[in-house]
């Protein structure tokens, strides 16, 4: 099995490949193609040639971007500045966006969080292994057929603090009792037929309320993104990038009950998921949106939902400009099935991803996928 260091050196993780900017204030954002009036091509460091890509494509520091003659392209850089790209010639992203920092790889689901595979139980969807900003999160769970009502319980480490019976599959927590910042809380759901979320394989899926000082810092960064005059999909993706990769500053770890190792796996994932799901409901769907949503569900161990959205991304990625998105979704499916122990399906999807990387001219990643396939029984 390859180590995380090896994965990072290859530019891959057991999740999506992403370049993040992490400033002193803790913001983490990629660059993206924000607008284009025509065909734009991209050559990543490992690619042998330029390939056409679509709006909202994520950009890395070592990439070269090539709008065809007369095509106007704008890139949203990691510092949230919109910068034009010269047409008719290749340009390095380092010259377009001057501020780039460390490459970070997304991680697989944290130990104990993998679940969401049994459609017959009301497994928790949200808030699941996530940080939360308010005392009124929306509680969501899997719908179980022929269920008349669900019993919801919210608990701290010692007792039940709130209980409610509802007929729907989500409810807003009323805000009282308030959540104590830094303390892990859990949610259980039981159907009138006796099926319980505790039958899910996952055990480490608590949520944590942030302290007000962290909330204020986050809101300031979110306000900067909200004020940008950019297209709706790009804004949604940038917000999801920020929420989905936010981690607590190490200087605040003493204010939280969990270990530093565990806290490092907590992000504002529920916020990120809500942003992309709202975007889809507003008719702003695309392969990039679906694949990013799948990555987020996989980040908190929800295997079925991740699988569904990876498949939707593949379904939507039917033009040459979306070859990379299709390949990333296929790779994601390989990861999910490998983690679930379904090695036959894992090999099928990894093989499809390898074909995609070869079509992109990325032999390094194609060879990496071969290693993954060969590591499976």
TrEMBL record:
InterPro entries: TPR-like_helical_dom_sf, TPR_rpt. SUPFAM superfamilies: TPR-like. Pfam families: TPR_8. This is Tetratricopeptide repeat protein. It comes from Microcystis aeruginosa NIES-2520.
């Amino acid at each position: 099995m390859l180590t995380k260091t090896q994965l990072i050196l290859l530019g891959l993780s057991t999740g999506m490949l992403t370049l993040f900017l992490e400033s002193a204030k803790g913001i983490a954002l990629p660059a993206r193609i924000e607008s284009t009036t025509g065909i734009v091509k991209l050559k990543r460091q490992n690619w042998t040639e330029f390939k056409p890509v679509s709006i909202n494509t994520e950009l890395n520091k070592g990439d070269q971007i090539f709008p065809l003659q007369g095509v106007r392209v704008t890139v949203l850089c990691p510092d949230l500045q919109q910068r034009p790209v010269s047409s008719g010639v290749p340009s390095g992203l380092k010259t377009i966006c001057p501020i780039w920092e460390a490459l970070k790889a997304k991680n697989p689901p944290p130990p104990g969080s993998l679940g969401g595979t049994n459609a017959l139980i009301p497994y928790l969807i949200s808030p699941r292994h996530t940080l939360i900003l308010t005392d009124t999160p929306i509680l969501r769970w899997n719908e179980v057929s022929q269920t008349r009502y669900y019993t919801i319980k919210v608990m701290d480490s010692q007792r039940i603090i709130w209980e409610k019976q509802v007929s729907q599959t989500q409810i807003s927590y009323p805000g009282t009792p308030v959540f104590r910042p830094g303390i892990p809380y859990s949610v259980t759901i039981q159907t009138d037929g006796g099926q319980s979320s505790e039958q899910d394989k996952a055990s480490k899926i608590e949520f944590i309320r942030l302290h007000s000082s962290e909330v204020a810092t986050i809101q300031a960064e979110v306000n900067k993104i909200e004020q940008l005059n950019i297209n709706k999909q790009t804004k949604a993706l940038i917000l999801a990038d920020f929420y989905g990769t936010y981690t607590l500053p190490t200087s605040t770890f003493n204010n939280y009950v969990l270990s530093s190792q565990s806290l490092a796996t907590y992000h504002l994932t529920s916020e990120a998921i809500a942003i992309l799901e709202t975007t889809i409901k507003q008719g702003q769907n695309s392969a990039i949106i679906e694949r990013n949503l799948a990555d987020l569900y996989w980040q908190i161990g929800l295997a079925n939902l991740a699988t569904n959205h990876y498949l939707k991304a593949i379904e939507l990625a039917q033009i040459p400009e979306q070859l990379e998105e299709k390949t990333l979704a296929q790779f994601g499916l390989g990861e999910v099935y490998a983690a679930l122990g379904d090695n036959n399906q894992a090999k099928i999807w990894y093989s499809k991803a390898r074909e995609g990387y070869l079509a992109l001219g990325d032999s390094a990643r194609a060879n990496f996928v071969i290693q993954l396939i060969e590591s499976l029984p």
